Amino acid sequence: xxxxxxxxxxxxxxxxxxxxxxxxxxxxxxxxxxxxxxxxxxxxxxxxxxxxxxxxxxxxxxxxxxxxxxxxxxxxxxxxxxxxxxxxxxxxxxxxxxxxxxxxxxxxxxxxxxxxxxxxxxxxxxxxxxxxxxxxxxxxxxxxxxxxxxxxxxxxxxxxxxxxxxxxxxxxxxxxxxxxxxxxxxxxxxxxxxxxxxxxxxxxxxxxxxxxxxxxxxxxxxxxxxxxxxxxxxxxxxxxxxxxxxxxxxxxxxxxxxxxxxxxxxxxxxxxxxxxxxxxxxxxxxxxxxxxxxxxxxxxxxxxxxxxxxxxxxxxxxxxxxxxxxxxxxxxxxxxxxxxxxxxxxxxxxxxxxxxxxxxxxxxxxxxxxxxxxxxxxxxxxxxxxxxxxxxxxxxxxxxxxxxxx
Length: 406
Known about the structure:
Helix content is 81%, strand content 0%. By secondary structure, it is mainly α. It has two domains: 1-190, MFS general substrate transporter like domains (Growth Hormone, Chain: A), CATH 1.20.1250; 193-406, Up-down Bundle (Growth Hormone, Chain: A), CATH 1.20.1250. Helix 8 runs parallel beside helix 14. The two termini are 19 Å apart.
């Protein structure tokens, strides 16, 4: 029996943790000058704190998950939140740059595994037709971090001290840890997974297609977003002081798109993904035209956030479905795939700018990646209807149950 009174509070605890994770990821971008000056390093060296975090997400999350597969999922979440707290405490007190980098990597390991495992836990606590909505609530914390967490952390770091920002995030981590302990069910009937079983799901073609969908969908968004500052200032003509409210507008789009994507993915998973990816491609193409008109550019930026994150609950649920019976490691890999997509999209977008194609060129890169995501999802959906796909991926309703029956 699912405890309907506990489930929303448990998902809320996961959402708060996600908010802290999102804040610590994004806030560093606004604090690089302060960190560089305090640590006596160049701005470029300080920028490696972003790259180091990304690598921690891509590689650290799956490695931790693989090492801890036999552990109950709640325990995994608690250890990860402990790493998050330690990482941000190290950042707050770091006397040297390498200690700050170590703290960032600790926090990144939490990011890479927590969102995947948290998605599995959230999906397990609700009925079959509410799983995508539960996952969207977990990711709501990540999107709200863009709207409030990162701007607030940047303001604290600039007005007081950048270390104060990481102390604030540490407090969020402690609150999250208490919430996870108190609210997330222990699920004593859950049998810890076996690493061999978790790895076996990667022999399924549909798992790889779902991971590709995640990477291409988010990569398409960030191919454009990585260079949104020069796009909005140099092309649209906004003053630099308008970037913060514009980015908050983008963040509002992320929140709305994520919640709508979760609601509709529960009704029709593949059609929702296809709609979100087609809409993202259309918005990116339209942005090449509206970028020259300030009001239209601002509105399109909000639509970009909405279309870009509308696919997240759907592809996370799809990864869990296609890794039926052993979804823990696969869901952590989804976060890695998304971050790999971000890295690839940003890199390709940078190549177009270096080639002198202008600041609207990354929008075309994103549109092409969104079309690729659409085609991959279309192919995966076609396989769902084939006899072979039914052998490759058991019915979604068994996605979490086998661990309880082994």
